Amino acid sequence: MEAAKVWNKYRELKECLLRLGRAAVAFSGGVDSLLLLVAAREGEVLGYATSSVFRPRAAYDRTIETSIYLRDGATGLRLGTRLYAALFAAIAGEDIHRMLAVVAIPNDASVALHTSFGFREVGRLNEVGRKFDRWWDVVFLEKRVEDSPLGA
Length: 152
Fold this sequence. Notes:
6-stranded mixed β-sheet
């Protein structure tokens, strides 16, 4: 239930789990696992990082989407860096060609985190995300895995 407090800023946890479940079922091969890593302190969830299917078609089997969420008040503790480092270490042996991240903007901290791990902006979409009763633009960030180690 603690994870719901983090996710509720974006969507109900129940919907998230159903969505991850559908993605896992639709996944046809390639990367062996989809991961959810959680950062907690004294039983309180502070944030989490995920890897998931980019698109449920065989042509995209070697591309994953990564996401990271931190609860309000959990920023500035380097949790994002530690979560992503652990996520990328866990998938380092997988046959991944590209990693993508989609960030609602403005979100300088998230863009900086992704950039520090070798992601670069490759596109923007206008008003495609809806949260907090308004539309948000998003940036697509990409990391070419063969160009650098996953943890770098």
